[in-house]
Design brief:
This protein is mainly alpha-helical and about 130 residues long. The chain contains 7 helices and 3 strands; from the N terminus they run H-H-E-H-H-E-E-H-H-H. The protein has a 3-stranded antiparallel sheet. Strand 2 and strand 3 form a beta hairpin.
Amino acid sequence: MKMITDRVDTMITRGLALEQVTASQGRVLAYLISRDGEPVSQKDIEQYLGVSHTTAKGIVQRLEQKGWVTTAFDNEDGRLKNVYLTDTSRSFHETISQQISVIEDALLAGVEEKDRRCLRELLKRMYDNIK
């Protein structure tokens, strides 16, 4: 599984290289897009990626330096730092979606639909086991 994860990260990074976005940064952008304008804190990103505070902070800072996101402290809870998409990153949504489709197609090439359903179920169980 580690080999697959490493290879997928390489494919994502290579696919997003022209945009100067790493795989982790691309996942954060995709997560923000999927939340469709809801407030997303840096803590939410930590939990989503399953990484430390320091790692999430570094990813967000680099995205902010590149102009992909902006940050601001939460109005209701000043301890939380919220992360917002910029107009540039919103237009990037299609690029991320296409890259994900290419990778999914490559991973599932030659796999029949019944096997795909079984795989999804097994992966969901595995994910639930480590939640």
